[in-house]
Amino acid sequence: MRPTPMPLKLLVDTATLAAHLDDPAWVVVDCRSDPANAAFGRAEYAKGHLPGAIFLDMDSDLCGEKTGRNGRHPLPEPQRLAATLGAAGIGPGTQVVAYDDRGGASAARLWWMLRWLGHEAVALLDGGITRWAAEGRPLVTEVPSPGAAGFAGEPREAMRVDAGFVAGNLDGGDAVLVDARVPARYRGEMEPIDPVAGRIPGARNRPLQDNLAAEGRFKGPQALRAEFESVLGGVPPARVVHYCGSGVSACHNLFAMELAGMAGSRLYAGSWSEWIADPSRPIERG
Hints:
The protein is an alpha/beta fold.
């Protein structure tokens, strides 16, 4: 009797994924997106994607209803997300591999969401479609028709916090905020997407790009751990709350911390775009 393989929970390399493209227990998900262009991901998927990969759209499939006060990418209702995942062929025993073309900046959101609903077998393709194509591996335009699976999961609410929690902990008591945006946005010197520039008071900056090596693959666990320890200054992971512009790229820092052996940090899913929707909330610049 063949032993059940251990699920992959963090990274998978291109060679391993290539060996499993025809494995019915694996589902590959294209998560490409562009914060400034909602049509980008689907258009790129149509041009070419990994064989058998399905596409999940950041602005519809992986996003809840926007109210104007809950940010640009609010989390969907758990039941709706579970239905989306099941329709994509993801069931209890499925190994999911997510990829994008931005070093995991979008794919990490799906990684976190699956974990949020209790699905552990999800990994990111290290280097994404960029590395896959650079190695001369195949891309196709055929759109698969996955069989529906019975996805079932309950949200782990301890993995996230809301705006009220953030507002109540601006003094750093039970939470230390880490902002995943580029330094110029963190400092409030520019803001290309949201109507207000700046940051949540007291937040520290860890741009997601710092998690990657020059070729777009993740740095090693030791390097990541040393860098995050430098940012956090001894703050334990359980007190760390990540945010970004809309709760997408912040998941990259959550992923990188887990890769570094620093599991247990949390996500403020509404992030900056939700925070600034209430003008009474304080902001900081400089």
